[in-house]
Amino acid sequence: MGSASGVRWSAAGGATISPPRSGHTAAVDAQGTVWLFGGYAEDGERRVTNDVWKLDGESWERVVLEGGGPGPRLCSASCIVGSRFLLFAGWDPQETGTGGVILDDVWALDLENLAWEKLGTVPRGPVSRHVAVATPRGVVLHTFRCLESVLVFDGNEWTEQPTAGEAPSSRGLHSAALVGDEVVVFGGADKAGDMRADAWGLDTRTWTWRRLAGDSDGPTPRAGSCASSYGTTFLVCCGAERGATGGLVPRSDAWALDVQTGKWTLLIDDPTALRPRNAATLSGPLRHRKSDDDTLVFALHGGWHPFVETFDDTHFLEI
């Protein structure tokens, strides 16, 4: 299978983030600037970081912050609400062999004053490998514990919101995005490592789940994919699947799911101009690029080819 007409990856031409990283988190603001936090950095040795970067145009710039803030982590979740970058929990591996610490702290970065503020902790205890999606009804946090309810954060307080309908099975390393009034959740892996390729929608008006697509209708089962959305479409890229003889096989394909019809469309198959990877971020659409036509542009950064290479490149997906 090839690529859909007019869809392509293009490499960014400006300054990149150093060192290379995976497992970071990123979100785009209303002006189309991408803000990125933390992750597993690799510059000769692997280490976790807590630095902040922003992408405005083609180049990344490190953000200099005053005062304290969240500690190093990966597998956290973030979103932007108004002028605040919200960061939820994650994992600090600490010393090799210790297992590290799963975190429960919540932070807000004021994007105007460039200062962090701690907002408390996530209910239900420490969590990582989860997703956070900003909606008109608050930030929805979906974790492996969300079988009968989800967590909703209004910027100050938490609500444990009961849900109706059949819910996605318990999972982590899934991806998610808002499409209309629905939080769409895709893929991931359970605690045993079994991967999924199903897609689900949570209507935030009624807090009711519905299955959008099954495991065999589109992308292969995978974890560590990245997602965004446009119009009535959920967009998912990359991730890693189980190999035929074990191990993780990274992907570089891109898929679009029409949430109204439940139909998947392959936008770009791999191999492509983008090297296969998982644990990258996808942000957009960006409003400051390709503004002279109808092209939608999304920024993908970093990621990891498991046990082979960590990436520092940025690519734009043009649709």
Mean pLDDT, nearest integer? 94
What structural class is derived from the secondary structure elements? mainly beta
Q: Count of helical segments?
A: 0
Residue share in helix: under 10%
Our count of domains comes out at 1
InterPro entries: Kelch-typ_b-propeller
Protein name: Galactose oxidase
Region (Disordered): 1-24
Pfam families: Kelch_KLHDC2_KLHL20_DRC7
Structure description:
The chain has a single domain (8-318), classed as Kelch-type beta propeller (Neuraminidase, 6 Propeller), CATH 2.120.10.80. The protein is built from no helices and 29 strands. The chain is mainly beta and 319 residues long. The two termini are 17 Å apart. The strands form eight sheets. Strands 2, 3, 4, 5 and 6 form a five-stranded antiparallel beta sheet that branches. A four-stranded antiparallel beta sheet has the order 1-29-26-25, with no helix packed on it. A hairpin with a 3-residue loop joins strand 27 (304-305) and strand 28 (309-310).
Task: Describe the secondary structure blueprint for this structure.
Elements (H helix, E strand, L loop, with lengths): L7 E4 L9 E2 L2 E4 L5 E9 L3 E11 L2 E4 L14 E5 L2 E9 L8 E10 L4 E7 L9 E5 L2 E5 L6 E5 L4 E5 L12 E5 L2 E8 L5 E9 L4 E6 L12 E5 L2 E5 L2 E3 L5 E3 L3 E5 L4 E6 L12 E3 L13 E5 L2 E2 L3 E2 L3 E5 L1
Antiparallel strand pairs: 1-29, 2-4, 3-4, 4-5, 5-6, 7-8, 8-9, 9-10, 11-12, 12-13, 13-14, 15-16, 16-17, 17-18, 19-20, 20-23, 21-22, 23-24, 25-26, 26-29, 27-28
Name some characteristics of this structure.
mainly beta; globular; Kelch-typ_b-propeller
